[in-house]
Amino acid sequence: KTTEKKTAPKPSPNIKVSNSKPQKHYLKTESIASNLYKICNFIVEHSRQAGMDEKQIVKSKIAVYEACLNVIEHAYHSRPDNWIEVWVEYTDKKFQIIIHDRGLSYQQHQPKSYDVEAAVEKRQTGGFGLHIIERSMDEVTYKADEVRGNQLVLTKFL
Questions:
Q1: Fewest 10 Å CB contacts: which of 12, 23, 87, 91?
Q2: Beta partners for 30?
Q3: CA 119, CA 128: separation in Å to the nearest integer?
Q4: Is residue 75 a contact partner of residue 104, using CB atoms and an 8 Å limit?
Q5: Sheet with strand 94-101: strands edge to edge
Q6: Degrees (nearest 5) of the Cα angle 22, 26, 28?
Q7: What is the 8-class DSSP label of residue 9?
Q8: What letters, b where the CB count within 10 A reaches 16 and e where it falls short, cover 102-129?
């Protein structure tokens, strides 16, 4: 007599799975530029599991890359003896990325209109990061806390 174990088929990567139960995942890594790829791969993996389309995955990946590069360069002044913590939390309605650091905070300013053509004409090489982050995500919130550290929350609605 043989027994057969039934398992549910794995969903195709392009099929969105309904998941109202929140999924939470965590990554902690040293604040060095070579770890940006590890962080981005973590985001891509969970974006796919959440059912995002490729365009939204790429936008989220770019926003996270820019945000974590800002942490490394500006919050930590490229000192590798610090940490970046990243959480992803998602349901079938919302995908959130929380980036936490204990470096220097930045001063938030009112969003300004950004003239990309003028920046290109001036051959500007920096200062695009915040603009890219805000354009790539549906919501962006930032909290600076001297005790708990800085927290950037990036949200995509699914």
A1: 12
A2: 83
A3: 9
A4: yes
A5: 23-30, 83-90, 94-101, 149-157, 139-145
A6: 165
A7: P
A8: bbebeeeeeeeeeeeeeeeeeeeeeeeb
Task: Quick: pLDDT tens for 33-80.
Answer: 999 999 999 999 999 999 999 999 999 999 999 999 999 999 999 999
Percent of the chain with pLDDT strictly greater than 70 = 73
Closest CA to 46 of 7, 83, 67, 17: 17
Of the candidates 58, 43, 62, 47, the one whose C-alpha atom is nearest the C-alpha of residue 130 is 62
- Give the amino acid at 16: K
Residue 61: which of 19, 23, 108, 95 has the closest Cα? Answer: 95
Q: Is the pLDDT of residue 24 over 70?
A: yes
Amino acid at 112: K
∠ CA 61-135-157, rounded to 5°: 70
Dig out the tokens for 152 from the structure: 């950037």
